[in-house]
Structures are given as C-alpha cells and as structure tokens.
Specification:
There is one protein chain. The relative contact order is 0.16. The two termini are 32 Å apart. The protein has 352 residues and is mostly helical. Strands 1-2 form a two-stranded antiparallel sheet. It has helices spanning 2-28, 54-72, 78-104, 112-130, 157-179, 185-206, 223-244, 253-270, 276-280, 282-301, 311-317, 322-346; strands at 146-147, 151-152. The longest helix has 27 residues, at 2-28. α2 crosses α8 (253-270) and α4 (112-130) crosses α5. It has twelve helices and two strands; from the N terminus they run ααααββαααααααα. It has one domain (2-277). Its cofactor is Mg(2+). Belongs to the glycosyltransferase 4 family. MraY subfamily. Keywords: Cell cycle, Cell division, Cell membrane, Cell shape, Cell wall biogenesis/degradation, Magnesium, Membrane, Metal-binding, Peptidoglycan synthesis, Transferase, Transmembrane, Transmembrane helix. Mg(2+) binds at residues 177, 254.
Length: 352
C-alpha cells in the first residue's frame, strides 16, 4: 500500500508543478492547438492553446513509478514495465501526430494509415512479450485467453490472442482520443477508470492464489505493481487536470490521449479484466459508438443520427454549455466505473 501512496503523491506533485512550466515553454515556442473549421464555432477561441500536454503526465507517471520503487527498495516487475512501455510507446506515436499538426499548422497530423501502423507496432511488441516472462510460480503477465473478471474459456492461441490484444489497444487508444474533445473531459473520464484499477490491483494482491488458494483467488502475476502503475498515472493525471479543466490552459493532445488509452488497455490485459474494461470505460465506449453509428448511418442513408459526432459535440450544437457537458459526462464515467467495480466484487458477496 505504501508503494501506491508514494506513486500517486509523486505523480500528482510532479504533474501539478510541471504543467505550468510546460504551458510557458509550449507557448513560447507557439506549439498551439489547431482547430477544425467544421467543428463547433465556440472552439475557434481555443486556437493557439498549448497542446502536447500529455508529455507532462506521461513523464510524471514514469518518474513517480521509479520514485515509488526507490523509496521502498522494491524491484520493478515485468507486468508494470510492460504496461508503462505500452503507455510510452503510444504516447510517442501521439507526439509525432501532434508535432506534425503544429509544424504544418493544420488540424490533421499523421495520416491515418501511418498512425495505425505505429499503434500496431507498439501493440505487437506488447502482445509478444506479455505472454512470456513467467515468474518463479510460472505465472506470465497474461495468458492466451480472453478475460472478464479473470481468464475465461479455452486458449485462443497466440495468433488469435495477438489480434485480440491489438484490437483492444487500437480500440481504446482511439476511444480516449475521441473522448478528448472538450476541456478536461478525457482526463476526468479516464481518471475514474485508473482509480478503479488501483482498487482492482490491490484486491487481487490480497486474494492471490499464491498466498491463499481458493475458488475466487486470482492468478495475476504482479497485482501490486499494476496498482502502483495505475496510481502513478492517476496522480499525474489529476495534477494535469488542475490546468486542463474548463477553461483549459493546456490540452493533452494525441500524446496524452493515446498514452491513456494504452495504459487502460495494458492494465486490463495484465489484470485479466479485458472485457470488464468495456464497462469500466463505458463513457469512452459510448462516445466511440456514436462515431461508428454516425458514419455507418450516413453511408447507408445519407442522413445523420447526431448533429455532430463524437457525442459531446452533438450536445454542444444543441446549446449545452461546455462545462455542463463535461461534468455530466464525468458523472456518466463515474457510474460506468462504479458498475464495473460492482461486477468485479459481486462474486465475493455472501451467498444467501
């Protein structure tokens, strides 16, 4: 528990103090956000707001993770390092995307194919390594099986598992990217999911099959360190949200949104809660579905279901204030995470 507290506290302090420095540096270099012309008219006033702020909380989380291990003299684990690799690798892809937008002064960065290729390369390395590196008990960070509250069903094979992992990584990194459309929206929505994973990792540690073999115990390799990773990123994200909340003084950019999607997918895979993430991150899933529905329905009928997709912009065009949308969407995100945690703990409820 000490490691979790240290990681969260250090991440919070580093991000809280580091973000204003990043704002000044990015403003001086004129690394400002480009705004789509077809977007809501109220967004044009945000043009030039410093972007690529995700660099701050990614670095703060990495330093917080290291500080936690230095303070407790605990060695980093394979599971924790793999999830951090996934976060950092996808953050690097997002950084390239953001940098191209700024350099070419346009709202689109990497071409969709190049961006997807970068995500797939990072994801493939993660998928290859995550089913290897067993500990002394023979437990690897993941098994070639789909999971919900734990691994379920038979093995789907290394090829099937790799495809499934890539689908999760690309899907959730893009889902957080789509959610990042209003000030503070993605930060708050993913923060509650990270908080859930702090609780999940801690619970799995207390009920692991190595210490107490039982019907509901967990075969998770490094549950404590996964909770430390979640706490480090959560602390760093809260520090960033202080400056990213409406009206935002800095945006996370694709650097931050892809990194956050990656860490969520990585935590779900390593804690064996892959399908549960769909519920925990329900808001991001809903927003992604709104885009899929909008595009699909328009191609079939030539008509739109929403005034604009992603979903948050639909409510903007209906006249809702930005802060109203953000706060209400945060509440939806909290309800989704609460539902996911309820399902996670339900098997531990006393039987009548």
């Amino acid at each position: 528990m000490t490691e979790i507290i240290i990681a969260g506290a250090v991440g919070l302090i580093l991000s809280m103090l580091g973000t204003p420095l990043a704002i000044r540096l990015l403003s001086r270099r004129r690394y400002g956000q480009q705004i789509r012309e077809e977007g809501p008219s109220g967004h044009q006033g945000k043009r030039g707001t410093p972007t690529m702020g995700g660099i701050v909380f990614v670095l703060a989380a990495l330093l917080a993770y290291g500080a936690s291990h230095l303070a407790t003299f605990a060695a980093p684990t394979v599971s924790g390092m793999l999830v951090l690799f996934l976060m950092t690798g996808l953050g690097a892809v997002g950084f390239l995307d953001d940098f191209i937008k700024i350099y070419k002064q346009r709202s689109l960065g990497l071409r969709s194919g190049a961006k997807a290729l970068g995500q797939l390369i990072v994801g493939a390395v993660f998928a290859f390594l995550v089913v290897r590196q067993p500990n002394i008990y023979g437990i690897t960070p993941a098994e070639t099986r789909v999971s919900f509250l734990r691994d379920i069903g038979p093995s789907i094979g290394i090829v099937g598992f790799t495809i499934w992992v890539l689908f999760m990584i690309v899907g959730f990194s893009n889902a957080v990217n789509l959610t990042d459309g209003l000030d503070g929206l993605a930060s708050g929505a993913t923060g509650v999911v990270l908080a859930a994973y702090v609780l999940i990792g801690n619970w799995q540690l207390r009920n692991n099959c190595i210490d107490q073999l039982g019907p509901n115990c967990y075969w998770v390799r490094d549950p404590l360190d996964l909770a430390v990773v979640a706490a480090a990123v959560l602390g760093a994200l809260i520090g960033f949200l202080w400056w990213n909340a409406p009206p935002a003084r800095i945006f996370m950019g694709d650097t931050g949104s892809l990194a956050l999607g990656g860490v969520l997918a990585g935590l779900a895979i390593a804690t064996r809660t892959q399908l549960l993430l769909i519920i925990l991150a329900g808001l991001c899933v809903i927003i992604t579905l709104s885009v899929i529905i909008q595009v699909g329905f328009f191609k079939m009928t030539g008509k739109r279901v929403f005034r604009m997709a992603p979903l948050q912009h639909h409510f903007e065009l209906k006249g809702w204030a930005e802060t109203t949308i953000v706060v209400r969407f945060w509440l939806v995100a909290m309800l989704c995470s609460a539902l996911g945690l309820g399902l996670f703990y339900v098997e531990w409820m006393p039987k009548p």
